[in-house]
Amino acid sequence: MEFDAIVVGSGQAGVPLATRLARSGKKVLLAERGDLGGTCVNTGCTPTKTLVASARAAHVARNAGRLGIRVDAVRVDFPAVMARKDDIVRSWQEGVARRIAGAGANLRLVRGHARLVGERTVEVGGERHRAASVILNVGARPVEPAIPGLRTVPWLDNRRVMQLPELPSHLVVIGGGYIGCEFAQVYRRLGSAVTIVEPGAHLLGHEDVEASEAIEGVFRGEGIAALLGNRVEEVSRASDRISVRLSQGGTVEGSHLLVATGRRPNTDDLGCDVANVSLDGRGFVEVDDHYRTSVPGVYAVGDCTGGPQFTHTAWDDHRLLFDVLLGKPGRGRKDRLVPYTAYTDPQVAGVGLTEREAAAKGIRYEVATVPFAHVARAIETDETAGVLKILVDPSTERILGASIVGAEAGELIHVFAAVMQAGAPARAIVEMEAVHPSFAEGVQSVVMALERYALS
Ligand SMILES: Cc1cc2nc3c(=O)[nH]c(=O)nc-3n(C[C@H](O)[C@H](O)[C@H](O)COP(=O)(O)OP(=O)(O)OC[C@H]3O[C@@H](n4cnc5c(N)ncnc54)[C@H](O)[C@@H]3O)c2cc1C
Q: What DSSP string runs through 48-72?
């Protein structure tokens, strides 16, 4: 056979998998129809977090007076913000290209849309190839919701909202999940009026209510309107504006409309039907604990398997599947811990179960929360918004889940993740000597807020 492996998609799993397989002596073909690096590098994590940083700089400058520093005027240079983002994305794209080239002659990159056309056989760029293993890493793209009138207006998705030549005067965001919330705050801080329309009762509806309410309070304070419990009934043009009709009555009009209502897998034109690769009802590739699809020799990793849809999860997929392909399967994909962070400011991070999930599963737990405003360092740095929360198993003292809304929550959550991964009891955090003053003291405080660890 000409190739040992064909990898479809140069995303967060595909590139490390293809390059490591090639370096280990396997002949690999990597197919990519778009920009190298996939969603994270081009339209996801990298550009959004670059924009989050610019927006935060504007916010900090505007609020410096609270710390006794006078800033007379803050002017956002929107083209410069976008150019910085584009430069950073370009450098990551070049890094991916270098990494692929650096894998040597065993790795062949073919640009074009790849399709399964038979048993472990892929057609791409006018060529047909068969391999011992085919790995699908095709990712996902934004859902286009069935909102009447949506196709009559120039709506934005996560890619188009980051290619705007000018700052929107009023951005309406449909969807209060993490992507919608990150963009809402970025554009508000850069100077747009922003309205979020969310059908659920809260922003970031996956989180427990304390976390959602903390972010809603921050957003209110920054002038972001959140219209909760509102479905969009219809979208239409109103001269040069976009009008959004709401289920609770009334309309909101904006200059721009961002739709952030979820992501669907790129499997509809992949030939899965021809190759008998089973998809679930939403089009995600069905895989077992070791990434095997319904067809022997065909595997799938990353967002196209249904998630959790994070870059670090896709990357972890690659290392688990690498071992499977080399005949030494270890951990499975289903029982792993997946910490995550929404890059609002303050950040919202979590690992393990939320209280709602624990209760729904009938799991016994002890719970504690501590306001971020009780953390000394947060007071000193004027970053008091947020809340820390922990759930512990009463019989084993193991942490069932933790969530943090607060400054550097995305860093702090790793303390909980590491303790949980090690299977250590929550007591380990109590016995740790936490540096003063640090945000991590909050991590210790919330564990010590559990009655069993309270100081007498
Ligand atoms: C706005 C936004 C912000 C995000 N922020 C974060 C964050 O902060 N942290 C985080 O962890 N995650 C974040 N994510 C999610 C993260 O980007 C994805 O989970 C991750 O990129 C998934 O990687 P993947 O390898 O599964 O797929 P992708 O990175 O999407 O790669 C799939 C690749 O396959 C290619 N492809 C698809 N079909 C074919 C075909 N038939 N033939 C050839 N090539 C094909 C695509 O062009 C693409 O390059 C964000 C996502 C978005 C949209």
A: HHHHHHHHHHHHHHHTGGGGT----
